[in-house]
Design a protein that fits this description.
The protein is of the alpha+beta class. 22% of the residues lie in helices and 26% in strands. The chain is built from 5 helices and 12 strands. The strands form 4 sheets. The protein has a 6-stranded antiparallel β-barrel with strand order 4-6-7-10-9-8. The radius of gyration is 19 Å and the shape is globular.
Length: 209
């Protein structure tokens, strides 16, 4: 695992027996307020999910870029209205062309002082505030990754598209049948795969020390 300096982002290398289509990358400086964006990720199980059998289901949500922070917060700058939940951090922010323009990782939360004024203890207020999301979320623009990757020892030739996002077409209607690729039956197996990948990277790095 290679963390990038100064921002809440790291790169994990992994191997798989499956072939994956690689998403295209786009210049995030061309993103604009009001532009449609999409988030893909695997949210943690809620009450209904646990009662329904415990499968993790990939979620794909739409929304709009609502603004940009003038001063980035640990890399986060792009703000959008998409619905997200815990567990979706690290997922891509896609434009209407399916191109990655950011990495989702932060959701706004209520101010706990709102609840301490109502008589709750600080611990109770923080617990309640952490469960309430006002609706705005934040991403690290993909250009920040391009700029900082060399400092983390990542040197690759990026193919970045510099055209604006295309206009949204007709609404996409998903099939009523669930896609088996969008479910994870055993989260422990998935976590073991990620941990094995991290261990492999560490072993390779040790060879060159």
């Amino acid at each position: 695992m290679k963390p990038l300096p100064g921002i809440d982002l790291a790169v994990v290398e992994f191997t798989s027996e499956q072939d994956y289509q690689v998403a295209k990358l786009a210049n995030s400086e061309l993103a604009s307020q009001g532009q449609g964006v999409f988030i893909s990720g695997w949210p943690a199980l809620g009450v209904v999910g646990r009662e329904a059998g415990g499968q993790l289901i990939r979620q794909f949500t739409d929304g709009q870029i609502s603004g940009f922070l003038e001063k980035p917060f640990i890399g986060y700058q792009m703000i959008y209205t998409n619905i997200t939940r815990a567990g979706m951090s690290g997922g891509p922010v896609l434009d209407a062309g399916g191109r990655v323009i950011g990495i989702h990782g932060l959701g706004d939360k209520e101010d706990p002082t709102k609840f301490t004024r109502q008589g709750f203890t600080q611990e109770e207020a923080s617990s309640i505030a952490n469960k309430i999301k006002p609706g705005f979320n934040y991403a690290i623009p993909i250009n920040s990754f391009f700029q900082l990757a060399p400092q983390a020892g990542i040197f690759l030739s990026w193919q970045v598209e510099n055209s604006p996002a295309p206009e949204l077409g007709e609404p996409y209607v998903a099939s009523a049948e669930p896609d088996p690729r969008d479910t994870i039956d055993d989260i422990n197996t998935t976590l073991d795969t990620v941990n094995n990948a991290i261990n492999t990277v560490d072993k390779i790095r040790n060879l060159f020390r």
